[in-house]
Hints:
By secondary structure, this protein is an all-alpha fold. It has one domain (1-146). The chain contains five helices and two strands. The protein has a two-stranded antiparallel ribbon with strand order 1-2. Helix 1 (2-31) runs antiparallel to helix 3 (53-62) and helix 4 runs antiparallel to helix 5.
Amino acid sequence: SVTLKSEIKKLIYTHVGIWLLLLAQVCVGHLKLLPHDQVAMPYQWEYPYLLSILPSLLGLLSFPRNNISYLVLSMISTGLFSVAPLIYGAMEMFPMAQQLYRHGKAYRFIFGFSAVSVMYLVVVAAAQVHGWQLYYSKKLLDSWFTSTQEKKKK
């Protein structure tokens, strides 16, 4: 249980790092802190993904007292607020990625790099983080549930 909590915390902190980068892009894009040729406006999937901080907070809240309810809510909301926007984002950006691949044309950039390439890297990294987070959360939930059942038998 302690090892699983440690792994999940690492993944949550990694997620917070990704989340802060996307939040920075959204803020810079809307507040026009840098020209749009340096930092492109965010894609539509990035806005609902900003809600993905909620499952992470619920996950962290579940740890101090081994709260099964918070962990279950964290897992469900990870699917809704983290994984679903990533799937939508991969589909939303696909035509631009196809155009870049076929014709070598990119119209949006992030510090000189094709925005669609950068954001696909973010999607892949975030999908791995959330996948592992769900996997370890399920193992932790099983562990907590087993220990709860053993306590009830005594």
